[in-house]
Amino acid sequence: MILIFTTGGTIEGLDYTDDGGITSSNVGIEDFLNKANIDFEYTIESVFKKDSRAITNDDRELLVRKIKETNATKILITHGTFTIEDTAKYIGKLNLNKTIVLVGSFILGSSADTDAPFNLGYAISSVQLLKPDVYIAMNGQIFDWNNVSKNLETNKFERNGK
Ligand SMILES: NC(=O)C[C@H](N)C(=O)O
Questions:
Q1: For 89-151, where are the E strands, in sequence order?
Q2: Which residue of 52, 77, 86 sits with most ligand 1 atoms within 8 Å of its CB, as the best mutation to test the pocket?
């Protein structure tokens, strides 16, 4: 069984507009899974729905509590890309002995050319195969929680020192 926690971000159609307001186009992660006719057991829970710049450590603590409470050992977290590495580090440091994969998208989940379904598929595959630890699945790659940063110029995640 895969447990999916959703937290908002562009992958769920959530973004700030240039004038500072927040836009929401209400994309359901479940919709992507249904469209792909997936055939594995999963549970999905919305923990909060925020642009990731608005996520606080209290929010991260709530996520951690839910991760600890569940019997599930394979957990996918959908998350905005701006602070996905902060959340990965926050959880990774705790050594929870579960396979936890965080994933987001760069292009609005509601847009026709979104990278959301590709990223989700890659992350769902990864969460089933990786050994217990915390990872970010983006740009068709897996990054360890303690060796990742986002390159704002290229919109790609990189290993540190690369
Ligand atoms: N690509 C993204 O997810 C950016 C987004 N607005 C966020 O929540 O971080």
A1: 99-103, 133-138, 141-144, 149-151
A2: 52
